[in-house]
Amino acid sequence: MGCAISGLAAKTDLGERNKGEDAAADGADAAALHPSEEQILMIKESWKVIRDDIAKAGIIMFVRLFETHPECKDVFFLFRHVEDLEKLRTSRELRAHGLRVMSFIEKSVARLDQLERLEALARELGKSHYHYNAPPKYFSYVGAEFICAVQPILKERWTAELEEAWKTMFQYVTSLMKQGYQEESSRQRHLTLSPKDRPEKSNTAL
Ligand code: HEM
């Protein structure tokens, strides 16, 4: 289960817990920085290698996530009753799910040069996670498990700088997902309020 994550945040949670623990835990992160140009190049280069093994990496990432944060498994209707996590390593459903998540990562990598498009994609994903009942405080657990899953694929090509680049990318994407989640949560709250209880629209433009 062990995986050595180097650098500042040798934690399983990459959500910048040192900067306002509770806000991050509630999913109300401040906006994270996007990766630098140099980091984008490193991420893109490494993705060319990782992509050949995404099915395997997706499974490893989720089995690790369920091992390190069992509360995440309960969110998944298909996996919440599975006691023996080893069985998941051959599960067709987990393979398919891992591939969906990996293909989102692939799209995100491709959009690192078009940050507006990446932001829209990640916010939409955050909104759909509101409907999956996946609490935003869990989003930041995924980056560390992704890193542990792909490190062995890259072998000696893995460096501390590359790790920092992927961490930055995950912090960025998950902070946008959290924003999307919060937007959807407020929208749903507004919809369930009766019209008389809704806050009046401000007329500051008048
Ligand atoms: C970096 C973090 C994450 C990413 C990139 C991600 C990505 C995705 C993607 C691409 C899908 C496929 C459906 C769609 O596009 O809407 C999905 C579905 C889902 N995700 Fe996530 N996810 C993340 C974190 C989490 C976490 C932490 C949980 C729960 C603890 C979670 C729970 C779910 C559930 C329940 C579904 C629906 C499963 C189904 O297909 O029935 N996700 N996620």
Provide a brief overview of the structure:
By secondary structure, the chain is an all-alpha fold. The protein has helices at 21-25, 37-50, 54-68, 70-73, 85-88, 92-110, 115-131, 142-154, 160-192.
Question: Characteristics of this structure?
Answer:
single chain, 206 residues, mainly alpha, Globin-like, 9 helices, 0% strand, globular, binds protoporphyrin IX containing FE
Shape: globular
Number of discrete domains: 1
* Continuous helix count: 9
Distance between the termini: 60 Å
The CATH architecture can be named as Orthogonal Bundle
Number of strands: 0
Strand percentage: under 5%
How does the major sheet shape up? none
Secondary-structure element order, N to C: HHHHHHHHH
Q: Name the CATH superfamily classification.
A: Globins
According to CATH, what is the topology?
Answer: Globin-like
Please state the structural category: mainly alpha
Helix amount, in percent? Answer: 55-70%
Q: Which consecutive residue ranges, at least 5 long each, have pLDDT under 50?
A: 8-13, 15-26
**If you average the pLDDT, what whole number results?**
87
* Radius of gyration using CA atoms only: 18 Å
Task: Identify every distinct bound molecule in the structure, by name, code or SMILES.
Answer: protoporphyrin IX containing FE
CATH class: Mainly Alpha
